[in-house]
């Protein structure tokens, strides 16, 4: 049985743990073995290989799911504590949340940054027939004076405009999840363990694109709204409406219309603004010709 002294010693025990490197390298002394959240060895030897692209499905869920279940570790007992939070992503796909320090999940993260986020698609019929992704890692709070805060704030509020009503409150702050691993359940007999690299977007060498993102989005939404609409309706088969771009990264575009979110993958990796311009022109021509 855990005593109060055992709970009090937990922070010291956690400090001895070595976090995985964000680039996927193992730090000296890092624990070897299965990835967090990986499936137990319970599959039959003759189990068939999943007949779907797990990485593509996982990345799609990560980029298009607007809310998810955040599981933290209760600061007093260590029991899992699940709550509902709005989700956005940074340019590399790292999940972003906006939470109040008055909330239980925030207090838990301040005590132990390890957490997971469940992202699930919805639809008709059995909820378990639809894909869902569990992303595991460690959260870090983004301070107001952090150089990344402006980008993270802009990307989050582009996905959740109504959050601007309270994003400036003193008790609210953004947190970013450094992904360690992920587990995808794509439906019956479709499951896969994934590494951080499987679900993240590589932004190495794309510094100019990172800097140009805000201007590129503003330009497209203001001057090329018709092209954005065609991306959604002609290329992705979505309903008609005033679609807007909410994000761009080397792998693709994020689009939104009200509560709906879409992902338009690029035909190849895009790392600089000029290549982005050319790709957008080509996508526009493709959409108008379809």
Which tags fit this structure?
2 domains, Split barrel-like, 8 helices, eight-stranded antiparallel β-sheet, alpha+beta, 290 residues, single chain, three-stranded antiparallel β-sheet, disordered N terminus, Pnp Oxidase, Chain A
Task: Describe the protein's architecture and organization.
The structure is a single chain. With 290 residues, this protein is α+β, with helices and mostly antiparallel strands. It has 2 domains: 50-199, Electron Transport, Fmn-binding Protein, Chain A (Pnp Oxidase, Chain A), CATH 2.30.110; 207-289, Split barrel-like (Alpha-Beta Barrel). It has helices spanning 4-15, 54-64, 104-111, 149-159, 196-199, 207-223, 225-235, 273-289, and strands at 67-73, 80-86, 88-89, 95-100, 114-120, 132-142, 172-185, 191-195, 244-249, 252-257, 260-265. Strands 1, 2, 3, 4, 5, 6, 7 and 8 form an 8-stranded antiparallel β-sheet that branches. Strands 9-10-11 form a 3-stranded antiparallel β-sheet, with helices on both faces. The chain starts with a helix and ends with a helix. The model is unreliable at 1-31 (pLDDT under 50).
| Low-confidence region ranges | 1-31
Mean of all residue-level pLDDT scores: 88
User: How widely separated are the two ends?
Assistant: 65 Å
Query: What's the main sheet like?
Result: 8 strands, antiparallel
Q: What is the name of the CATH architecture of the largest domain? A: Roll
What is the 3D shape? globular
| Helix residue percentage | 25-40%
Based on secondary structure, the structural category is: alpha+beta
Beta strand count: 11
Query: Into how many domains do the coordinates divide?
Result: 2
Order of helices and strands: HHEEEEHEEHEEHHHEEEH
User: For the CA atoms, what is the radius of gyration?
Assistant: 20 Å
Instruction: Give me the number of helical elements.
Output: 8
